[in-house]
Amino acid sequence: MIRTRDPRHVKASNNDDFWLQFTEYLLKSVSNDTAKYRLSCAKKYCHVLLEENATDLLRLSNDKRIHVMKSLSNLAKFLGCYNKWKSIIDRYQLKWSNENGVDTFNKILNGKYDYSSMLDWLKQAYQTLPERYGNALLFNSLTGLRPKEACESIKIIQSDIDEYLIKDTMFLEHFRFPDIFIRRTKNAYISIVSEKILDIAKQANKVTYTSVKLAIKRRGVEMHMNYCRKIFATFLRSEGVEQEVIDLLQGRIPKNIFVRHYYKPDVRSFNRIREILNELYTVIIQ
Which domains does the chain possess? Predict the structure, then answer.
């Protein structure tokens, strides 16, 4: 049982059996890549948990600190000493958020992150990349998925579309593939598509997230595939699509009572969204 594990085992950096068991524990809730990264962080910073001294975490950048905190949280649960970890968080006033209201406000006004700048990047990348990689970016922007989800979706469309696409509604039902799209903190449920969007996915032959990154790097373009998801949400919102619908299409189910018990979007609005996506397609390729 997890609660009988001796935390002193962590100190033995060559204790392969311990870390193997921890890896297996991680893989029950996160992807292979995430498990590898959290294992690495846990090995490097396990002394924070064992010595109850988080000074080293205070020296890290916000993003790095949050990744390490997630790793230590997993390790603490695995060892059965999560209350000790919560005590460390409180004592050192560690925060799970990487930005405050002022940071968010500044980011909104920062020209580097505004809609026009992101769209300029997407157009440049689409025109610069070989067709199949450009189509991967285009598909990502028209579905609003996370970059890795978009690449996985393309793969399924090309190999198992009958189990994936509901032709009557033209929905891609991501939830039918829970190992890929339903995770502990990041989910994708459905995407609204058209024949044009499906054709774009089919033309993005054998792309992976890694291959897209390498293709972008070879062309000397900065890697900002995460802009695709932001462009999708911003364009839909600017066209009057309700925030609740955008959240649904991007895999976010708010916890408020209104959404969970009362909000029932009109299915006819999805046809309007499909028209809006056609407009977004035109904006990107023109």
Answer: 2-92 (no CATH), 107-285 (1.10.443.10)
From edge to edge, which strands make up the β-sheet containing 190-192? Answer: 165-166, 171-173, 190-192
- Determine what percent of the chain falls in helix, strand and coil, rounding each to the nearest 5: 70, 5, 25
Of 183, 157, 159, nearest in space to 171 by CA: 157
28-77 pLDDT per residue, tens: 888 888 899 999 999 999 999 999 999 999 999 888 999 999 999 999 99
Give residue for tokens 């064992």: 50
CB atoms within 10 A of CB 262: 8
Total-model pTM: 0.72
Question: What CA–CA distance (Å, rounded) separates 85 from 45?
Answer: 13
At position 215, the amino acid (one-letter code) is A
Stronger pLDDT, 183 or 132, i.e. the higher one = 132
Distance of CA 9 to the CA centre of its chain: 33
Average pLDDT over residues 192-202: 97
The DSSP-derived string for 124-172 is: HHHHHS-HHHHHHHHHHHHH---HHHHHHHHHHHHHHGGGTEETTTTEE
Distance CA 237, CA 215 (A): 31
Alpha-carbon distance of 26 to 2, in angstroms, equals 13
Q: DSSP 3-state assignment of 120?
A: helix
Is the dihedral angle over the CA atoms 275, 278, 279, 280 positive or is it negative?
positive
136 alpha-carbon distance from chain centroid: 16
pLDDT band at 1 (very low <50, low <70, confident <90, very high): very low
